[in-house]
Amino acid sequence: MKVKVDFHIHTCYSYDGLMTLKELIVYSKRSGLNCVAVTDHDTIEGALKLVKQDEILVIPGVEVSAKGCHVLALNVMEPIQSGLGAQEVVERVHEAGGIAALAHPTAAYKGARKTLTAKFDAIEVINSSSLFFDLSTYLNGRIADALGASQLAGSDAHYAQEVGYAYTIVEASLNVDEIVKAVKMGLTTPCGRRIPWGVRLKREALSLKKKIALGLNGLTASSSTEGEGPSFYGCSFC
User: Fold this and answer.
1) pLDDT tens digit string along 206-225?
2) Local structure of residue 230 (DSSP, 8 states)
């Protein structure tokens, strides 16, 4: 069996995310995805809420801010400390029972060339949000080949309309453990295209508006009362 997975999605639990959990489910299904990895910036709160629903299969994860790079911690049920070196992040992800993928290694302003000695399980070869999409995709593929790492694709969606622009075909049954096992075995085919500029610009404008609002209120994306998600211009999680 082959499943279609977007391995890199953000919700409103990310400081720059705009997508409610309900919107993620709706747009994932609309995009024909079988599974999504929820990878908010340095928080797992939204992912843990989504794994409880049964409308689409969810891989819980975190986009960890490591020194010099971002690491997608996939299939983890606990937060991974940010600010550590890449290899230490990889080790902590493994200790938590997950796998570690290097996110957008050649994206502008997010380069991670100095971190390539870390033993990543996979490389995000296609990222729909990359500014220099074609060049980044080519170079990321070269990096994955040189390291002998599995190749993944993710939309890096922060806005509902961006979901599914990149995805990975995984040769596995529709089960999180089987998908993770297949990724480790290299049974993946990355696919996708750049997010259209119109959609991207709308996202950037709304994201800036959110950051300004959070700053004015002295909040962070994860600041919320117990059991509730953050709220921003109707972005709630009841």
Assistant:
1) 888 888 887 766 655 444 43
2) -
Q: Quick one: how far is CA 168 from the chain centroid?
A: 12
Looking at residue 214, its pLDDT comes to 78
Strand partners, 65: 70
- Exposure string for 174-183, b = 16+ CB within 10 A, e = fewer: eebeebbebb
| CB 80 within 8 Å of CB 89 | yes
Task: Provide the pLDDT for residue 115.
Answer: 73
Torsion, Cα 214 156 37 26, to 10 degrees, reads 80
Secondary structure class of 72 (helix, strand, coil): strand
Please state the length of the chain.
238
Instruction: Kindly tell me the burial class for residue 226, based on how many C-beta atoms sit within 10 Å of its own C-beta (0-12, 13-18, 19 or more).
Output: exposed
Domain 2-216 CATH class label: alpha beta
Name 138's Cβ contacts closer than 8 Å, sequence gap at least 6. none
Phi, psi of 111 (to 5 degrees): -60, 145
Residues facing residue 102 across a β-bridge:
71, 123
Q: Looking at residues 53-75, what average pLDDT do you find? A: 96
What is the rounded distance in angstroms from the CA atom of residue 176 to the CA atom of residue 169?
14
How are the residues of the chain apportioned to helix, strand and coil, as percentages rounded to the nearest 5? 30, 25, 45
Q: For the chain, how many helices (H) and strands (E)?
A: 6, 9
Buried b (16+ CB within 10 A) or exposed e, 27-37: bbeebebbbbb
pTM confidence score: 0.88
